[in-house]
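Minutes, structural biology subgroup

Action item carried over from last meeting: produce the structure token record for Phosphoserine aminotransferase (Duganella lactea). EB confirmed the sequence was re-checked against the source entry. Recorded below for completeness.
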Amino acid sequence: MTHIYNFSAGPAVLPKEVLAQAAAEMLDWHGSGMSVMEMSHRGPEFISIYQAAERDLRELLAVPDNYKILFMQGGGLSQNALIPLNLLGHKPAGATIDFIHTGSWSDKSIKEARKYANVNVAASSTTEVPPQAGWQLTPGAAYLHMCTNETIGGVEYQPDFDDPRLKDVTLVADMSSHILSRRIDVSKYGVIFAGAQKNIGPAGVTIVIIREDLLGKALPVCPSAFDFKLVADNDSMYNTPPTYGIYIAGLVFQWLKRQGGVAEMERRAQAKAELLYTALDASDFYTTRVAPHNRSRMNVPFYLKDESRNEAFLAGAKARGLLQLKGHKSVGGMRASIYNAMPIEGVQALVDYLNEFAAQAAQ
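Output recorded by EB:
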């Protein structure tokens, strides 16, 4: 059988070790006689799974003690809606939220926020992050929202925390597509959130890391099950959490620790991205649209200059076991998502195919 490399943007590839362990434990978790899917979320078996997952994630990201980690249902869209619902309750009517707009997910978050507050787009570009000195920030804004890795467009960045204007600003970051792939200083952010289905686990789980002083500020219309304070006060058990997804996430966290943690994942991400972008840059057959200094290490959109060859490219890739390379419908082209679980051998196989396809087309 052809070796399969899955470049899907999400739900995405998971470590084979994790899948094998989950398969071995499917019918009987640690001698309990139950599958994790069958366990009560309040029983001692699942509580031990949840506590280990929370503890390991806190260790991997060096999450400070004054931050809560929440495991919730949903995905990026749901969290984009829940952020303003949870952060505006203590703000006056007509408050303003600042946004750094860098692509499709920024668009989605702005759309949700406009239901509850004024929106100021402090900077906007879909091919790079505008220089921070030129960001038009609102004095006294409720918070500053950014998507630090755009899954669809492939823009990635971290803000410059030396900017004195950020000193007293509550930063909210959607890190769905690159969380656990690079070191971050959690203490610089008020809220970090991420859908699990990129670098953590299966779809259906979202993770929220929130500074404790930001809890208890929900709008009155916020449903109780999605009130961050209620979720935090009940250790993510206010309602039934996505138990099996949390279990898989916990296995991924253990796998990450065995690999060497986030520092090692960052080293691998740099190596994989450099390998792929070097191949794309070396050929006139392909083009990329993101400025080199903001290229994502996780999501690599690229285009064939002759787009009439797109279907042939995808068919050839599939025949070689290189799957899910079609770009998002909103932007077209191709996209290779090279998350933590994608081995460098998969990226090398893609590079070999890129070179082969371009050479054949030139004949």
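Discussion: Residues 17-258 form a domain with the Aspartate Aminotransferase; domain 2 fold (CATH 3.40.640.10).
Next step: EB to file the record with the rest of the batch.
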